User: What shape does this take?
Amino acid sequence: MRVLSGIQPSGRLHIGNFFGAMRQHLELQKEHDGFYFIADYHALTSNPSAEDIASRTLDVAMDYLALGLDPEKTVFWRQSDVPEVTELCWLLSCITPMGLLQRCTSYKDKVAQGMSANHGLFAYPVLQAADILIFDSELVPVGADQKQHIEVTRDIAQRFNNSYGEILVLPKEHIIDSVAVVVGIDGRKMSKSYDNTIELFESEKSVKKKIMRIVTDSTPVEEPKNPSRCSIFALLKLFCDKDEIADWQRRYLEGGMGYGEAKKALVGKVIEYFGPYRAKRAELQEDTDYVRKVLADGAERARAVAAKTLSKVRYAVGLGR
Ligand code: ADP
Ligand code: TRP
Assistant: This one.
């Protein structure tokens, strides 16, 4: 089955991205025909500087490769190296009703958060539909925040097929819900836009500093504490097995344990979990030519698939005949 997903290079990847998306991508590549890309066209909707978009794209590539993305098996590329998607995006735009996009919540949310209301941001779901449909993707693993975009993709594909024949494959969404939302060090959703992340490969010193700074309530050491209202416990749970979770839960509820102890344990867990990938990440950092080559090879493989779909679509709508 063809599994496709994209991740925006909008900043350094963090443990929310890992548990909410990357881990499942890496797992799914083993059994399926994985197609993963770095959505740099999409990232332009927030108008980053040229230097930022370029360096973040490479960072995302290195993070994925360090964590085990297998570029032999999985097709891994930079979205903008397959410009066919922008043409398909236009062709799909012409059959996409305004109302469908006006109903999309992510545009409204992003504008409410202060992003400029540019046309790219509004048309973002159509480009995402083109990403998915151009590769005949069957399964699209995404976080719950992306569910609406997959529904829009299916709607657009159905409209296209109704008008021009059964050309586009309707994808199934695959909502990654094994981890609901990873909390950040300020208790809100961990997000690059909130400056509350623990990055996957930041220095051990910095991981420690951030975790030790997590704000807790002022329950004294000896008193019982509520694990379900504690960010440290929520983060610890990501790294612990069932027995360890039960043990921490008991210690919170019993009292006699200070938050400092839980914080120290969390620092240890984060460092231990990502530690084995650090050497590989550092090696890639020293060999960006290799990373660029992986992306170029991926783009070539992706383009071959994209060109086929695009040519069918162009013919169907009456272009180039
Ligand atoms: P950010 O909010 O940091 O900009 P993105 O919106 O680029 O992250 O998310 C990329 C992927 O990571 C999406 O699939 C999203 O669902 C997942 N993700 C991001 N933050 C979290 C989080 N805090 N918890 C769980 N999943 C997350
Ligand atoms: N919009 C997605 C996000 O912000 C990224 C993305 C772009 C994507 N194109 C895609 C995800 C196609 C899945 C399939 O997370």
Remarks:
- The chain has 13 helices and five strands.
- The pocket of tryptophan (ligand 2) is lined by residues 4-8, 39, 42, 128, 131-132, 140, 142, 146 (CB under 6 Å).
- The first strand starts at residue 2 and ends at 7.
- The chain has a mean pLDDT of 95.
